[in-house]
Amino acid sequence: MSRIAPLSGFPEWLPPQRIIEQRVLDHLRATFELYGFAPLETRAVEPLDQLLRKGETSKEVYLLRRLQEADEGERGRREDQLGLHFDLTVPFARYVLENAGKLQFPFRRYQIQKVWRGERPQEGRFREFTQADIDVVDRGELPFHYEVELPLVIGDALRGLPLPPVRILTNNRKLCQGFYRGIGIGDVEAALRAVDKLDKIGPAGVAEELMRTAGATEAQAKACLALAEISAEDASFVDAVAALGVSDPLLDEGLAELVRVVEAAREHSPGLVVADLRIARGLDYYTGTVYEGVMQGYEKAGSVCSGGRYDNLASAGDDRYPGVGISIGVSRMLGLLFGASALTVSRSVPTCVLVALPDEESRPASDQIAAALRRRGIPTEVSPSADKYGKQIRFAQRRGIPYVWFPGAEGAADEVKDIRSGDQVTADRTVWTPPDEDLHPTVGAAP
Amino acid sequence: MSRIAPLSGFPEWLPPQRIIEQRVLDHLRATFELYGFAPLETRAVEPLDQLLRKGETSKEVYLLRRLQEADEGERGRREDQLGLHFDLTVPFARYVLENAGKLQFPFRRYQIQKVWRGERPQEGRFREFTQADIDVVDRGELPFHYEVELPLVIGDALRGLPLPPVRILTNNRKLCQGFYRGIGIGDVEAALRAVDKLDKIGPAGVAEELMRTAGATEAQAKACLALAEISAEDASFVDAVAALGVSDPLLDEGLAELVRVVEAAREHSPGLVVADLRIARGLDYYTGTVYEGVMQGYEKAGSVCSGGRYDNLASAGDDRYPGVGISIGVSRMLGLLFGASALTVSRSVPTCVLVALPDEESRPASDQIAAALRRRGIPTEVSPSADKYGKQIRFAQRRGIPYVWFPGAEGAADEVKDIRSGDQVTADRTVWTPPDEDLHPTVGAAP
User: Fold this and answer.
1) Residue A1: its pLDDT value, please?
2) Residue B294 domain-assigned?
3) Which is it for strands B45-47 and A380-382: parallel, antiparallel or unpaired?
4) Is B9 domain-assigned?
5) Is residue B362 domain-shared with residue B412, that is, in the same domain?
6) Cis bond before residue B106 (omega within 30° of 0)
7) With an 8 Å Cβ cutoff, are B42 and A106 in contact?
8) B350 vs A6: CB contact, 8 Å cut-off?
9) Helix (H) / strand (E) containing B32
10) What are phi and psi of B286, to 5 degrees?
């Protein structure tokens, strides 16, 4: 007996929610293209050894096996095993290496796709979700200015939608590494990983972990926490860091870079980017600016976009491909907003006009009216059956279709009714046009 | 050591091909929405028992296993196993049953997603591909007129693109079943499956199989083949069938339905739909009209879209959900056309204008020009570096970017150069607009 039930971690939207999601994705894509990012899609699978290169999330992979193979009890060699990608960065790095000879560098691309995490079902976390990524990758050297540009693109992409404002908390790996080195901590990577847990385990927990895993003294741990407390919407964080009295050339380089990111963003989109020296990002491969975006009112839910500068993700022989990227967690964002009933849409179908049907014999005539409206870009359906007009109007009402079109009988003019106001006027199918705001479903924020 | 190599069966496009694919998908989607189909996406996975309901393709499934589970040697119960969907019909039927209480019927939806087939790699067939499906599903009864409408939607969706014309070969299961019954064949399903192999094994092979699997006599097999030879672009096939002298009420019903499909399509899109009584479609669940579309010039490659009427795919207790759907094999279609270099695109990036950089200090000024152009919907990039202008122009040329914008020095006016013609004119960033055909990449048919 087949079970018909939702699968935990695999969210599915109803049509109105999907209309909202598409509106969001269309806006992201349009913004990315305005900035010249080229579209890209990679296959859903990677060889397992590619997926395991990245560290941290390596255990959350779904492996694939052909059913027949499974039935026969075969077991492939590990290097032949395929797994579903768990992010879009690893496949992108592989794609760049594979196609380096056919791409133009610096290469700007966006990629909007599903990713999968082989989480235990009971954890209630998404196991399938949509991400929207932008990256710029160059061959050899990547100019710093892309680290300034990327959060501005993300800011533009998330503006102009009925979403809560997003603040991108920004830090710089060089700043932290230089500071830790400047105060004499031996294992800088371990220190980064410890500070990354600040939200989860609190200052005392981080201090304990800094001492235990990074070999920090109590004073060093205190200095790390003091650094992590600094945040500012302008360059004033430089003075706050200086007040801690640590000197290191890498620290200075990181400070200067972070100033450029924060100042450019203040000019372009005030309030978008905040220097927040607590942001560490657990992943080892970041080497410069790191980003973590939170939605206003949903800060507790954690980041909805994240990324950073990486120098060592892709290399082949002597060719290095440094890059910088930010990923928007679209499903995560919409999951939060749908959960809070924060978004509305004016109807559950694309249809703007329902053409009524006087009787079943008139279907070809009603089809022709629909065709005439569609030729002018007006989404139109014909009534499924020649019920009484009242019932046909209710068909439109239940879906939020704003207009019902009544074919004129025996030479009389057609009429169109706005079923919200009840207004009914004569109309010419070759001329009549709905108001712009009625042509497509309208997405808004719930009052 | 990580392998960097293409995976057979998992096609990936380069950016220019992806731009073409997106243009195709956008046009399909716009057409589907013009006809009032609501957007839908289902999760990529289904419980294995759901996937195995459908028959035929049941062995070509990819099963999922969490890496950790695999490492621990766990083995889930079969009913808990998840597999990747191999089409969009099975997940849609499941979605309809799961959400029946929240959907409005008749429910029209389109769905554009990846599907996966766990084929052996050496067969060289796609193991991941994109499909674009439309279906109309109703509760209880589904009016016949949707079987007339669906091929017209597909015809519109595939017109207006630089693709070869598609012909939709159409038949009706009732017609075949009535005919087979009328001539006294016992196992009608087996007869359908045998005739479905006509392209693969030829008339003699089908005759042999009809006799072997469907219990047909030689005369019955000959009659089946005579029926399969009939095709027409108008209702004339009715006379050709009548000439075979078989009488059956189901045959008559099927003939009448097929006439309606063919005649309506002749009116709407001459040449789009052809009655072809050879089309059987192997899948058991079709019960009325069946469709199989081929691209002109690529007929040998087989069908690029297919579908039909089904009555028994989804039911729960006393509620039945009959439907009709057609699926376009987008990857299959584009794979054929890319393989033949049949499609072109004017550039490999969305960018319409490259803003040049006199020197690195001027980057903020060039960024402001880009922002002004983007505000008016013109896709714009700023030069990655302040190389000599000749090198910056070559950056644009290599990507097919048509315009380079030169910021005016010290109060002088900006200038914009069409790098194809070499024409350079003064320009105001708040007013200048490229010709419509240059705003976005242009997709065309190769000469």
Assistant:
1) 39
2) yes
3) unpaired
4) no
5) yes
6) yes
7) no
8) no
9) helix B15-34
10) -75, 145
Please tell me which residue of chain A has the smallest CA distance to B53.
A2
When CB atoms are compared, the residue of A63, A95, A348 closest to B38 is A348
Size of interface A-B (CB pairs under 8 A): 231
Highest mean pLDDT among A124-128, A249-253, B68-72, B123-127: A249-253
**Helix, strand and coil in chain B, % to nearest 5:** 40, 20, 35
Residue-level pLDDT at B51: 86
Instruction: Give the tens place of pLDDT for each residue, B178-199.
Output: 999 999 998 988 998 899 899 8
Average pLDDT over residues B422-428: 97
Decide if A80 is inside a domain: no
Query: A118 to chain B: which residues are within 8 Å by CB?
Result: 64-69
Residues of B in contact with A349 (CB under 8 A): 36, 38, 108
Residue in the block written with tokens 């954890």: A123
pLDDT tens-digit readout, A191-243: 988 998 998 899 999 999 999 999 999 999 999 999 999 999 999 999 999 99
Q: Is 0.85 exceeded by the ipTM?
A: yes
Do the chains contact at A36 and B128, CB–CB below 8 Å? no
Judge if B299 and B325 occupy the same domain.
Answer: yes
Q: Is residue A34 part of a domain?
A: yes
**B232-257: pLDDT as tens digits:** 999 999 999 999 999 999 999 999 99
CA B232 to chain CA centroid, nearest Å? 25
- Structural domain including A248 reads 15-39+92-344
Final residue of a structural domain among A344, A374, A395: A344
A371 shares a domain with A272: no
Q: Which of A3, A4, A368 to mutate to test the interface with B (most CBs of B within 10 A)?
A: A4
Of the candidates A39, A45, A128, the beta carbon closest to that of B19 is on A39
Residue A44 to residue B114, Cβ atoms within 8 A: yes
Contact A7 B64 (CB under 8 A): no
Residue finishing a domain among B297, B326, B344: B344
CA distance B144 to chain A (A): 10
The span from the CA of A253 to the CA of A294, in Å, is 26
From chain B, the residues in CB contact with A6 under 8 A are 98
> Across the 447 residues of chain A, what is the mean pLDDT of every consecutive 10-residue run?
76 97 98 98 93 66 83 57 94 95 96 93 82 97 97 97 96 96 92 90 95 94 96 96 96 98 96 94 83 95 94 83 97 95 97 97 96 98 97 97 95 95 97 97 95
Residues A184 and A297 in one domain: yes
Contacts of B100 in chain A (CB under 8 A): none
Identify the pLDDT of residue B1: 39
Strands (E), B165-311: 166-172, 231-232, 273-276, 286-295, 305-310
Residues A30 and A178 in one domain: yes
Mean pLDDT across the stretch B49-71?
75
Q: Could you tell me the pTM of the whole model?
A: 0.95
> Sign (positive/negative) of CA torsion A352, A357, A361, A362?
negative
Total number of domains in chain A: 2
For chain B, first and last CA: distance in Å?
Answer: 44
Answer whether A146's CB lies under 8 Å from A324's CB: yes
d(CA B206, nearest CA chain A) in Å = 28
- pLDDT at B288 > cutoff 90: yes
Q: Three-class SS of residue B388?
A: coil
Using an 8 Å CB-CB cutoff, list chain A residues near B20.
none
* Shared domain check, A375 and A247: no
Examine the domain organization and report whether B32 and B141 are in the same domain: yes
Q: Residue B323 sits in a domain of what CATH number?
A: 3.30.930.10
Q: Which of A12, A40, A42 sits opposite B43 (nearest CB)?
A: A12
Non-local CB neighbours of A101 within 8 Å, separated by 6+ positions: none
Same domain, A188 and A260: yes
Tokens of A120: 């235990």
Say if the Cβ atoms of A37 and B350 lie within 8 Å.
yes
